[in-house]
Design goal:
By secondary structure, the chain is α/β, with parallel strands linked by helices. The chain has nine helices and eight strands. The chain has one domain: TIM Barrel (Alpha-Beta Barrel).
Length: about 290
C-alpha cells in the first residue's frame, strides 16, 4: 500500500462483476485498482477528481496528512468513494524511512502514530490499517528487532481492535526495497503468531511475493484464513496484469474457487496511461 504521505488513485471494482465497471456487493473478491501514481508522491486531490473515467464508478485513496480527516471525509462523500485501508504512519519517507515498527528507538512515535491513524480511520469509515515494519536497523541485535516489532504490533492490534479496526502487516521484496525487514510470507506469519493477537492479519502482495518466493497459488490457499487483503502488479516492471510473467487469469479463478471475499488492491504503475491500463479488466474477463 502507498505511504501515509502519499496519495494513490484507487478504483473499487467487484471482482466477479467488473465487466460492468460498477460496484456491487457479492461473495467474491472486490478489485480496488490503484493505477497511475500508485508508486509516486502525488497530491491528495488528484485521485478524487475524474470520477467515472474509463467507466469506473468508485474509488478509494490512501491518506496524506496534508489534509485533515474532515477534509478527506468530505472528498470521499462528495465523490461517493470507499476508503478500503491506509497505512500507519511510516516515518520520514522522503529521507529513506520505510516504516518504524521494528525500530527500538521509535516506539513512542509508533504508538502516537497508531492513535492518529485510528482517528483518521474512524472519520473515513476505514476498517483496516496496514503496518510497514521498516528497514532493518543497523547494529541492533536480531532478537531486539523482533521483540520491538512484536510488541509494537501487539500494542497496535489491541488499540485497533477496541476501535473495530483490523491490523494488517505486509512483506515487501528486498530487490525493490533493500533492507526491508519483513520480506517473506513465513517470516511475517511468524511475527504475527508471536503477537498472540487474533487481530493481526497478513496483507499479501502478489508482486512482492513473486519476486521473493513464488508459489503464489499454494501460499494463498494455505494461509487464506490469515489473509485480509491482497495486492497485485505484474512482474517484471510492476505494471498492470497481463504485462508480465504472472498468470493472473488463473489466480483470479483460484481466488474465486477459494471463496476469497476481500479486497484486491491494484498497486501498479500503468505501462502507458491509467485508462489504457484498465484494459486488463475486460481482457481477463473480470
Amino acid at each position: 500500500m502507498g505511504q501515509w504521505q502519499q496519495s494513490h488513485q484507487a478504483t473499487s471494482l467487484n471482482h466477479e462483476t467488473a465487466r460492468r465497471l460498477s460496484y456491487l456487493e457479492s461473495s467474491h473478491a472486490k478489485i480496488r485498482c490503484q493505477p497511475d501514481d500508485a508508486l509516486q508522491r502525488a497530491r491528495i486531490r488528484r485521485p478524487f477528481r475524474g470520477r467515472g473515467q474509463g467507466g469506473v464508478s468508485r474509488r478509494g485513496v490512501s491518506l496524506s496528512l496534508r489534509l485533515s480527516k474532515d477534509q478527506l471525509a468530505e472528498h470521499l462523500g462528495r465523490h461517493d468513494l470507499v476508503q478500503v485501508l491506509h497505512n500507519l504512519p511510516a516515518g520520514d519517507w522522503g529521507h529513506g524511512e520505510r516504516g518504524i515498527a521494528a525500530l527500538p528507538d521509535r516506539v513512542g512515535e509508533f504508538q502516537d502514530g497508531v492513535g492518529k491513524a485510528i482517528d483518521y480511520a474512524k472519520a473515513l469509515g476505514c476498517t483496516q490499517l496496514n503496518c510497514l515494519s521498516g528497514l532493518r536497523p543497523v547494529d541492533v541485535p536480531e532478537v531486539k528487532i523482533q521483540d520491538t516489532l512484536v510488541a509494537n504490533l501487539r500494542f497496535a492490534a489491541d488499540q485497533l481492535q477496541a476501535a473495530g479496526i483490523r491490523l494488517l502487516v505486509e512483506a515487501i521484496n528486498t530487490r525493490d526495497m533493500p533492507g526491508f525487514y519483513l520480506c517473506g510470507t513465513q517470516q511475517t506469519l511468524g511475527i504475527i503468531s508471536a503477537t498472540g493477537s487474533d487481530n493481526v492479519f497478513l496483507q499479501y502482495d502478489i508482486y512482492h511475493m513473486q519476486r521473493m518466493e513464488g508459489e503464489l497459488a499454494a501460499t494463498i490457499e494455505k494461509h487464506l484464513p490469515r489473509i485480509a487483503h491482497i495486492q497485485l502488479a505484474d512482474n517484471p516492471g510492476r505494471h498492470e496484469p497481463g504485462t508480465g510473467e504472472i498468470n493472473y487469469p488463473f489466480l483470479f479463478g483460484h481466488l474465486d474457487r477459494l471463496g476469497y471475499d476481500g479486497w484486491i488492491g491494484c498497486e501498479y504503475k500503468p505501462l502507458t496511461t491509467t485508462i489504457e491500463g484498465l484494459g486488463w479488466v475486460t481482457d481477463m474477463g473480470r
